[in-house]
Amino acid sequence: MEKLKYKISSRATILLGRESVSKVESALIELIKNSYDADASVCYLLFDIQNDSIYLIDNGIGMTKKVIEDNWMMIGTDNKKKEYISTKKRIKSGEKGIGRFALDRLGGVCELFTRNSDESSVIRWKTKNQKQAGRCR
Known about the structure:
The protein is α+β, with helices and mostly antiparallel strands. It has helices at 10-20, 24-37, 65-72, 79-82, 102-106, and strands at 43-48, 53-58, 110-114, 123-127, 135-136. The strands form 2 sheets. Strands 3-4-5 form a 3-stranded antiparallel β-sheet, with no helix packed on it. A two-stranded antiparallel sheet has the order 1-2. The longest helix is centred in the N-terminal third of the chain and has 14 residues, at 24-37. The termini are far apart.
């Protein structure tokens, strides 16, 4: 029998995000947990009311393009079940693979800038609205 792959629409990811992360406070906690899991020792959360923006800045290990593709953009990834201890010996708090959907609760535009020591340049991941998948440059 031929193997079939699941398909998911961009709209379904919005619904999953909004159902999985029901409050703004929960969304922020999910993103801060990502900083913790990335071994950040500093995590700044800035609310820019004049520009209707939220900034989360940390000094975590950063992501490679492969991590973004295989983990950040993968719905329900179980990578933290397999690799549940961080480099700094922290027990990782994320577990359901839904942290990225916290963004859908916070707004329709996101820009993520990340740099991992394994890559020489900064990666920019951007989504302009909730109907598009993220794009790396």
